[in-house]
Write a structure and sequence with these properties.
With about 90 residues, the chain is mostly helical. The chain has helices at about 20-35, 40-55, 60-75, 75-85. It has a domain at about 40-85. Helix content is about 65%, strand content about 0%.
């Protein structure tokens, strides 16, 4: 049972956590996300900072490339197309 001090005057629980209202939770997430994503300068700054910090870690970049290569190599049609073209420039 919830503590009486954790319930506001409307009878709803206080706080910022999950309270069992999936639609309300989703609505709140969409509201915040749409506002932030509309600010193109803010989003580009986030991407720029993230890219700089990742690119400085050579081992991490190596792992990313390795994982990408493994994903691509699983696409047999793509790999056979590469093989048909041969070793020349495309």
């Amino acid at each position: 049972m919830a503590d009486a001090s954790a319930i506001n005057s409307d009878g709803a629980r206080k706080g910022r956590g999950w309270h069992g209202d999936p639609e309300g939770h989703a609505k709140a997430g969409r509201k915040g996300g749409s506002r932030v994503s509309q600010n193109k300068d803010h989003m580009s700054e986030i991407g720029r900072r993230g890219g700089k910090s990742v690119a400085q870690n050579r081992e991490h970049m190596s792992q990313i490339g390795r994982r990408g290569g493994l994903k691509v190599s699983r696409d047999r049609d793509h790999m056979s197309e590469i093989g048909r073209k041969g070793g020349g420039r495309t």
